[in-house]
Write a structure and sequence with these properties.
2 domains, 4-stranded antiparallel beta sheet, 165 residues, PH-domain like, alpha+beta, transmembrane helix, 3-stranded antiparallel beta sheet
Length: 165
């Protein structure tokens, strides 16, 4: 007889591998732009004159692009008995368990998702297939929390509608 998994108090997931890749890419961009800024000495090509302001602008652009790359890895999922808090690249959502129908992680999918009761689907960018066992553990924890909430809040019994036959 299979045993039911223990319900965790909370589940937290972040994309580990994506953070490493984005960190390396951001570092490469920042270093490359710093080198370009350093090599962009004060000179005139006859048409364009490069100066200190151009060097600062190129270095600043490198920092800006590096920060944008790091923002791609800022996704996070936090869940507890009250609900799920999802932070994707630009969107933050706080979802109570009563709105969640299922936690899905299809074989071919790169990310897990929450199937909502109103027919929508919320992608969890923090739970990625590339993270392997960490992602599977997070999905199992989310499913256990959802099952625990459903057990504590059974759906009320509804009588037949007025015109049901």
């Amino acid at each position: 007889m299979p045993t039911t998994p223990a319900v965790p108090a909370s589940v937290t997931a972040v994309p580990r591998r994506l953070r490493l890749i984005c960190g390396a890419a951001a570092a490469v961009v920042v270093v490359a732009m710093a080198v370009v800024a350093a090599l962009l000495t004060s000179s005139s090509t006859g048409v364009v004159t490069f100066g200190l302001a151009d060097q600062v602008a190129v270095a600043g652009l490198g920092l800006f692009v590096g920060a944008g790359i790091m923002a791609l890895s800022a996704s996070r999922v936090d869940a507890d008995a009250d609900g799920v808090r999802v932070r994707n690249v630009l969107v933050r959502r706080e979802l109570p368990w009563e709105l969640v129908r299922a936690v899905r992680f299809d074989r071919a999918a790169s990310c897990a998702s929450l199937e909502m009761t109103y027919g929508d689907e919320v992608v969890l960018l923090a739970v990625r297939a590339a993270d392997g066992e960490r992602a599977a553990t997070a999905v199992e924890g989310l499913r256990a929390l959802l099952a625990s909430w459903r057990a504590a809040h059974p759906e009320p019994v509804r009588g037949p509608l007025l015109y049901d036959d």
